[in-house]
From TrEMBL:
GO cellular component: cell outer membrane
Protein species of origin: Candidatus Egerieousia excrementavium
Protein name in UniProt: TonB-dependent receptor
Gene3D superfamilies according to UniProt: TonB-dependent receptor, beta-barrel domain, TonB-dependent receptor, plug domain
Membrane topology, from the record: Multi-pass membrane protein
Domain TonB-dependent receptor-like beta-barrel intervals: 176-601
Pfam family, one: TonB_dep_Rec_b-barrel
GO biological process, one term: siderophore transmembrane transport
Lineage: Bacteria, Pseudomonadati, Bacteroidota, Bacteroidia, Bacteroidales
Main location per the UniProt record: membrane
Amino acid sequence: MSSDICRTILLSLLMASIPLAGRSQQNDTLESAVIMSESKINASLNAKFAPGIRVERYANVETVTAGNTLSDLLQRETSLYIKEYGRGMNSYLAIRGTSSTHTSIDWNGQSLVVPTLGQADLSHVPTYFFDNMTIHVGGNSALYGNGSMGGSIQLRTTPRFKPGTSGDVTLKAGSFYTFFGGATLRTGSDNWESRTSAYYSFSKNNFKFRNNTKRGTPRERQNNARYSNYGILQEFSRRMKDESVLQLSFIYLDFDRQIQPSVSTNDSEYYHHSVLDRNVKATALYSGTRGIWHYRANVAYNYDYELYEEDIIAAGRFFVSMENQLSLGKVLLNAGGKCEYIRPDVDAYAAGTKEWRNELYLLALYNVTEKLSLGGGVRATFVTDISTPLQPSVNLKYGVNKNLSLRASFSGSVKVPTLNDRYWGGTATELEPEKGFTWEAGADYAFKMYGWSVKSYFTWYYSPIKDWIRWLPAGEVWRPRNVPKIESDGVETGFDAEKVFGSSTWNFSAKYAYTNVMMRESLYSNDPGVDHQVAYQPKHTLIARVGYRYGRIDARLTGTFTGKRTSNDIYDIMKAYFLLNAYLKYSPGDNITISCELNNILNKSYQNVKFYAMPGFNFSAGLQIKF
């Protein structure tokens, strides 16, 4: 099927759905067959079709993490590994040993991944704007589309439809002249809502560190690491008479950041540079329910712009998508697709470069019995001048009893080469898309005993990837090449235990991940990297927490462990490190929250990426007033 045919099908599907949404329902029985809550209006319909995988959900993200970035949130709440080039600098996620280009991240159905790079900088995603988050760990392109080889993160903003005016003012200040200020105003009624949010963040970022490239590892102050960011979110939501919802959203983000130099060049102004990023994202989302049919249509545009020295790397992207879910007793069906057009503006690309990326998928869920659920589906991807295989998904979940459930999943995934991969310095027609499979199996166990409430999980997975794209030396330049085969396997486990003692509540939780990711086949004979752990991928990561709540006081002590990993030299072993952080929140009134964070309490000297310093002990204090 050609891209033109695909575009025609998708546009026809979208246009045909709009008038159907407004038709009167003729069957009273069907009207009560499916009732979608408001929280589901902005949620993706696809996660439920994979009962064999574990999904983590986080609500009230903007309240819990006000002033932080998505990078901060994931490091504080999960055992996922994030590669940081310094405090507040570029941060990229690696799930199950995959690269940052192997995780899809979207907001209300719109991708936050920059198409030129094929990845999202987590330090550029302010959690203050978002209401809730869902994390799917594990590859499954049938559910989430191109690039979902390691996992997927879904961010949502959700209308509340409450009469009157409400909002908050949030202030936060801390070490290294760091400041955050944000304000949100919501106004509306039972049927409409307007939300305006804005924030500003600044830091001199002049922390002290140990310079391990100099004799005696002297303490130095970090130079050229200042950043200032601001952003605006505007949304308008309208609930129609038939309970369908139209949501118009707009985000503008501006990042003006110095590039933190390595410790060896900290004092050399020759290596001091800065970068400016601007992102515009607009989307119109229409969703609703008509008896057994739930629909969701999205039209979006975004523009990503980066200026480094005199080089501009920019791209405009327009897409439409449609999801249609039918509830047929024990069977759920979901059919949909996406049509995406990308027009880059990059000096290193040939003039007139453009690309179409289109997708069609079909998913199904069969609740065989109260204990057994089967899910699966398939997705087809159509990209300009690239052939991609179908991406299947098969899932199973079985409830042994009220405490124990077992799950299993098999899925295929694809990642199309990024625009830089394909067009930087000339079109790389020889590049193949990356192709992977994931097998996983696990169990979830929950019980209550002697006043304790305990939830736990265990997952094993195996994920081989063929034609992994890496940039390698080609004479005096670097060019993208397909590495024949990389394999990732490992386990993930965790628990959460809570007990109430009179007026207080204690909570104990831990999450551990063992990640074994190796290159099995190389482009070169006698490559020393074969059968060795991929660079910057720790085998062991752990997060453990003790929490205590009493009345209006909430306190948490969190420890995170990042195991040994290599730099780009497989024989260069970087030390493991352990960080201890504390968080205290006090609410003197229903609408006032005072918080304090203590980070790296043990004042550990460490580097996440080789030769990029990270701060020792630091702190911040925050105030949030709601109205």
